[in-house]
Amino acid sequence: VTLLLAVLGLLAGADDDAAALARVLARLREQVAKCVVAIEVDRESDPEGRGGAGAVAAHRDYLNRPLGPCSGVIYEADGIILTSRFNVSGTIRKGGLKVTLWDGRVLEAERRGTDESRDIALLTVDAKDLPTLPRADLAKLAQGSLVAIVGRAPDKASPTVNLGILSALGRMRDAAVQTDAEMNYGNTGGALVTLQGEFVGIGCNIKPLSHWGQSGGIGFACKTVEIDRLLDRLKKGEHLEAEKLPYLGIMPGEGDPDVEGVPVGRVVPGSPAEKSGLKEGDVITEFNGKKAGDFELLRSMILERRIGDEVVLKVLRKALDKTVELELKARLDGRPEE
Amino acid sequence: MSALLSLALVLQEADLAKVREFEAKVRAACDKAKPAYVFFGQGSGVCISADGWVLTNYHVAGDRDGQRVRLTGGRSFVADVVGWDPKGDISLCKLKDAKDLPYCELGDSDALRPGQSVIAVGNPFMLGNGNWEPTITLGIVSALHRYMDNPGYFDAIQTDAQINPGNSGGPLLTLDAKVVGINGRIDIKRFMNRVNTGIGYAIPSNQIRRYLEAFKRGGRVFEGFIDGIKFGECGDARYANVGEYGDGVFIETIKEETPAARAGFQLNDIVLQVENYRIYNSNRFHGALANWPQGEWVRVKVLRKGETKELRVFLGEPEGICRREMTAWPFVTGMTAGTDESFAKVEVLLIEREGPAREAEMKPGDVIAKVDGATTPTWADFAKAMSGRKAGDEVKLVVVRDKKEVELVLKLAPKPERPPRRP
Fold it and tell me: Is B59 a catalytic residue?
């Protein structure tokens, strides 16, 4: 037996890398597919058009959500399923949410809580002892780690596997990881896993960057740690709206590169910046006593504050051939809807 | 039974180990490439030396000075563009006050093979702004020597590593973390939908390396061409033709007293090779020549009456190169000097109707021998002797006219006002 093992081991060694990868993926597919479900949604035709309205929005919605099932992941054994919020948004007709399990069982599901900014939704089905995925240790992963997204194919019975790497680990204010594994409507909502089938996150539809949702190699998966944090609220059926971010209301302008600070190009009407008296051509040098540096730094400092906070800006302004230093106060507001 | 099970396990482990080996290579490449990445406005760049030379696209950096850039992690620098090539879409910048920076070396893009794994580092859709973590994508080299005009990706690497708006100027690297290209372009198929479809292009590192010296000297760099020939494509039905399509290009006309004529081209020569690049059609000929900047010499292999011959050809037009250098001077001399490919003789070609040269009674055909007492036999000597001067300075020249030395005094005039370069 030992001899046989050695010979086969050698054979495996002589085998090429592509074949080894194929076998690893086949096994991964086998392991993960049990925990990935197909979701069918029968919804009223009330598209949540991303821009546009009426027929335009409906068309866009159709392009983004073509016919066929989409994917979800069994999160807890007693019938807790997580998917992308986009997969199950809109008004669902009565009894119109169906989940197909790996073994072919079709169960009626109920939509519970959703989270808009992380694009996740929690569904429940009446089932017990469902298989779940082991969790990946994010600390052991890095940019370049191989990952795969496992979703369900249109025939509902078989899984799809798309291979990629972790492109970045901290995206969407650290809620998501980024991957170049192709993610389109269908496998969105599926499980992003490591090569050994360990669960990294739920493939979600945050910030689709092409208007009909085709993958451009930039996909996001909401981290399991982030989902765990929200799980109780989602189970209770809470709908978490997109978090409003604090904003000041300026666009950066072109300034003298030797003067340190953020030159103000435009002041948004009605914004905290305008109310504070900030004007075009000003240079913001300090924000709450800290050097403003450049626009990106200023922006990150604004994002660290909360809506309603009062901040002090130190500003250089050209007036009558000389530069004066001003201190302005602004009360941060929430970013208005775009 | 247990033996079979353990056998299966061993095989599984072997497979996984093999894939892990590949993964480890990718991760190592990411680890090395990431610190050398530069966030450059709405695009990307890559640091190629410890003292802060940064490559990016011309359509990202242009020729502007004083641009604020960041390294991975957020360390901030001011970048000045030193040399640029708008047609080839490359700008070389220098980071101010930079030392001991992490960097990635330029690799050998001619050693790439289609199918080889590569990674792209970039900042698509500005996703990394704020936490300054770039995006890394994995793909393969899909094809080599792709040719596109406007802007000229004359010898591009095609890759399916996903690159998107914001990746421009970022590096394409092999798994040993050598920069083999600068990503800069994608093909898209639908209007208003600028996302990757699996087709991205990068400017090859070997082309960039050949331009590097010229970039570092500063100013605009022009891509090479052979002055003085018209060429046709072998097998093109419009010509009474030599060869078949795929053979290369053939020389259709030759202008006398040009670098092409002096190199020894003859009518109906079929160009087979430029240095080590095989030429199979006119695009490839153009693309291969653009791998060198003007002012360089290349070896061209031609087929002539069944025999192959090797010619040494100067790229570009020497007079044009001199004229460009002279227009970059901060003063006007009122004359145009020229030279040949050897740059060994500086000859006055044209005297303007008005200006310092006319006042000094300079004549076309004068050969400049001395500037302020220093002998200046070559163009480089002359350019060096003239550098550092300003309008209003007087320059004593000695020119050779009819085998006699004549002394002249050139009073340099100020340059006419031009609209300022955009900041």
Answer: yes
